[in-house]
Amino acid sequence: MNSDHARLWHALGMGPLWRLRADAPAGAGGATPDTDRADPAELDWDGLEAAVAACTACSLCETRTQTVFGVGQRSAHWLFVGEAPGAEEDARGEPFVGQAGRLLDNMLAAAGLGRDRDGAEGVFIANVLKCRPPGNRNPEPAEVARCAPFLERQIALLRPRIIVVMGRFAAQALLATDATIASLRGRVHELRIGAEDAALRVPVVVTYHPAYLLRNLADKAKSWDDLLLARDTYAQRAPA
Ligand code: SF4
User: Fold this and answer.
1) Does residue 189 or residue 141 have the better pLDDT?
2) Nearest CA residue ID for atom 3, ligand 1
3) Strand order in the sheet with 78-82
4) How confident is the model over 225-239, as a mean pLDDT?
5) Is the CB of 84 under 6 A from ligand 1?
6) Into how many domains does the chain fold?
7) Pocket of ligand 1 contains residue 51 by CB under 6 Å
8) Domain of residue 114, residue span
9) What is the mean pLDDT of residues 166-173?
10) Band of the pLDDT at 2, cuts 50, 70, 90?
């Protein structure tokens, strides 16, 4: 694991979460110090959404149109996680809109899921980063470190029964690895959130990002296989 991924690993709660924020160099990707914002771990859904909307903890706040908090029912059992908002998401304030979003919605519908549904059929969709990187460049580790407490709090509040991670960046960030997406697909990983003795353990399935599938139609079948693996995993682990 390289140092960037070690930082992401900590930032995403696979260790002492808040230490990373304190260690992050002052101003590294940050417009204002973290000490200026409320602790996301203390916030409820509405407080968290307001905190994200007002966040200036990294320089992405200077170029965004608006933050993209996430979409879906807050009692959904499924969480889908992508990388960061693109241009359309930045303009509309919702993740996975446009062509890639329509593909995702079609795949969800085929699996009996939807962002407007609840409980076992419900999907909440969020990104690792809540603000668009200019020109859709790759997120910087410092930006992820600043933003990670928001995603971690979303996971803690949602308590999803399963997480589907879409795309190489999000998969490597959540799973703290440099492994290729090809090697991460096809098996079930586990994400631990919180202190070791009280950690929330959530199964994670990795799949391709819908934007990638638009350019690589042959891999759609593999993505469908991933969704079926996630559905089987959910069915095995969900309480009767
Ligand atoms: Fe804040 Fe995250 Fe947006 Fe950076 S990307 S300004 S940490 S909400």
Assistant:
1) 189
2) 131
3) 123-127, 78-82, 162-166, 200-207, 188-193
4) 91
5) no
6) 1
7) no
8) 3-237
9) 94
10) very low
Name the residue of 83, 129, 138, 153 to mutate for ligand 1: max ligand atoms within 8 A of Cβ.
129
Ligand 1 contact via 142 beta carbon (within 6 Å): no
- Rounded percentage of the chain residues whose pLDDT exceeds 90: 75
Helix axes 220-237, 98-110, angle to 10 degrees: 50
CA dihedral 18, 21, 23, 29 (to 10 degrees): 170
The CATH number for 210's domain is 3.40.470.10
In the structure encoding, which two tokens stand for residue 11, read together?
A: 């930032």
**Distance of alpha carbon 29 from alpha carbon 12, whole angstroms:** 17
Is the per-residue pLDDT at 208 higher than 90? yes
52-80 confidence digits (pLDDT tens): 999 999 999 999 999 999 999 999 999 99
CB of 130 within 6 A of ligand 1: the answer is yes
More confident residue, 88 or 25: 88
Q: Are 60 and 129 in contact (CB under 8 A)?
A: yes
Ligand 1 within 6 A of 52 CB?
yes
Residue of the nearest CA to atom 5 in ligand 1? 131
